[in-house]
Amino acid sequence: MAVSAGMVKELREKTGAGMMDCKKALSETGGDLEKAIDYLRQKGLSDAAKRTGRTASEGVIGSYIHPGGKIGVLVEVNCESDFVARTEEFQALVKDLAMHVAASNPLYLRREDVPEDMIAREKNIYEVQAKEGGKPERIVERIVQGKLEKFFQEICLLEQPFVKDPDLSVNQLVSSVVAKLGENIVVRRFQRFQLGGQ
Amino acid sequence: MAVSAGMVKELREKTGAGMMDCKKALSETGGDLEKAIDYLRQKGLSDAAKRTGRTASEGVIGSYIHPGGKIGVLVEVNCESDFVARTEEFQALVKDLAMHVAASNPLYLRREDVPEDMIAREKNIYEVQAKEGGKPERIVERIVQGKLEKFFQEICLLEQPFVKDPDLSVNQLVSSVVAKLGENIVVRRFQRFQLGGQ
User: Under an 8 A CB cutoff, do A52 and B122 touch?
Assistant: First the structure.
């Protein structure tokens, strides 16, 4: 079992153990990273039960608490350099996004994140609606697709109309800042708490 | 199939449909709430694809962004009345809790939330450590239990030492505010974002 430098590096980052100990741990455990972590901890060579991975990218975590304190949002937006992360435009984007999430309550980041069974359930409802509404069979499929598009625009953050300028989707808003700052920007994740909600 | 008033109420809250429509939907679907929601939507009697349940309790959502914007926290703390939620003491507690989560990085709210396999893995490590450390068999179990207690105190918010006064656990901090305000207070959930983290 050849232990690569990359594997040793990853194990060091995760455990803080020395290079030789990491090499030994990996060859003893056949290169299984999780087992190597356990091995080092058993030997007392890693004290880091919950050391997190190194940050993969730059950016900013932003928050928004709606007045009254019944709705709160956390959002992570990534960019390529800390320089851009500190710019006023980037910080304003993060603030806008957090505020948008509070107002528009997206359920997912992008349509790829919507569970298959949720989509199937929606399609079924639209189909029954269209048929009961007396629509001819040949256009039912088109109606269902159209409603599904609208559904994605309702529940996916990146497809929602931006609350401060509904002519723009959130994705288009982000793209406009990308064009201005010349760096890739990715909305990585968000969390919305509503008092007593899920 | 008898349709109870409680079921009708819940369906109304979830769909915004009228009482008679909700009754009909429930009896048509044998009292299955999810099916009744679909039924109402198929009939066009509920426009609320994503209406959330009514708030179950009072309280406040608080946030904390660590200077630099690389760590952010959202926390929900519940109490019994909006009056208490607005008090200075309660708001200070929420702020302290958010700041504590940023600093101490708990992984779970309480020990009941820690997955069984994570506990088993820890126990195994402690056991091997104790045995390799030459501890006599008869006290290994006690050592493992002691270390497991420390592990819970490390990763569970309510058991962590409060960052601003480590003589107190977070649970004790909450209890002290309960005693002061005379209302039950529950830390309901938290979310911690670290830039580039999980």
Answer: no
Q: Is the ipTM of this complex over 0.85?
A: no
pLDDT in tens, B110-149: 999 999 999 999 999 999 988 888 888 889 999 999 999 9
At residue A3 the predicted structure's pLDDT band, cuts being 50, 70 and 90, is confident
Tell which A residues from 157 to 196 touch B, by Cβ distance under 8 Å. Answer: 189, 191, 193-196
The secondary structure of residue A59, as a DSSP letter, is: E
The rounded distance, in Å, linking the Cα atoms of B73 and A159 is 25
Note the residue count of chain B. 198
pLDDT at A175 over 70: yes
Provide the pLDDT for residue B134.
87
Position B47 confidence tier, pLDDT thresholds 50, 70, 90: low
Give Cα separations from B57 to A11, A78, A195 (angstroms): 45, 35, 7
Closest CB to A49 among B61, B154, B189: B154
The residue among A75, A82, A189, A193 with the most chain B CBs within 10 A of its CB, best to mutate, is: A193
Q: How far apart are CA B173 and CA B181, in angstroms?
A: 13
Q: Which token pair is B176?
A: 């002290």
pLDDT at position B52, please? Answer: 36
CA distance A164 to B39: 35
CB pairs under 8 A between A and B: 145
Please, what is the angle between helix A33-42 and helix A19-28, to 10°?
120
CA angle A165/A166/A171 to nearest 5° reads 90
Helix H or strand E segment including B72 = strand B71-79
Q: Which residues on neighbouring strands pair with residue B71, listed in sequence order? A: B194
Q: pTM above 0.80?
A: no
| From B49, B59, B63, residue closest to A63, measured CB to CB | B63
Taking the Cβ of residue A44 and every Cβ of chain B, the question of whether any pair is shorter than 8 Å is answered with yes
Q: Alpha-carbon torsion A197, B63, B162, B118, what sign?
A: positive
Name the phi and psi angles at B64, rounded to 5: -145, 125
